[in-house]
Amino acid sequence: MNKNRLKIGELSRLGRVTVRALRHYEEIDLLRPSIIDRESGYRYYAVGQLQQLQSITTLKSLGYSLEEIRNLWEDDSHFPSIESLEEKIRACEAELEVLQERKRMLKAVVASRKKLHKMEKVYFESLPAITVASHRTVIPSYEDLGRLCYEVIGPEMTLLGCECPEPGYCYTIEHGGYKPQDIDIEYCEKVTAKGKDSDIIKFKDIPEVPKAACLKVFGAYGRLYQAYIDLFAWLEKEGYKIAGNPRAVYIDGIWNQEDSDKWLTIIQVPVEIY
User: How far apart are CA 163 and CA 166, in angstroms?
Assistant: First the structure.
């Protein structure tokens, strides 16, 4: 390297830009070589032009176009005015608003596609007639269901001598509509035979359901509310009529999975075609 001149490759390396970019700057008369060897065609830049290249890089990072930068050179100002910089700030803010709206729209599309993907996993099966031990009460939220089972229903069923066949089958029914709080819920668990009713537990014979739409829901019970809403909307769109009380069947939960993301609940909705 001549201490007074830089070849194009040397300037490229020191300025951290491509040779192609330097050739383009030359073409648009933004940064021309100080010397071009007529015989070899080699381009040489003055050492001081490295600082000019670094200024170009800085201004580009601030959002200035090459044309705007060239105009600064032609006006001998070499750096934007405060007014110009403030205008760039306003442009950034406007662009951020556009990006935020785009982000919102993208998230809405993703949520819609996830719902569609989830509904593609709906399957149908018949539900046999069973006998259940049931308990109906109002709970503040789905998160209180575990406490209800462990502290109230389980001990009472043990006291009544209830026998539950394997594999176990328990579900809940939400009476009076579906809502995330103050849920009128009925817990039902399959038993081998009816026992004597108590103040807490009532025994029932549940008839067969010829056809039920089923959807698996992974995660904490707080997700059930939206899963119900999505499934009901899908059933209506596909021409199905709800023909009985929907059930939330508990397969995996706090009793065998510490990680709530691995809890599995299956929604079963008795249906018939319109």
Answer: 10
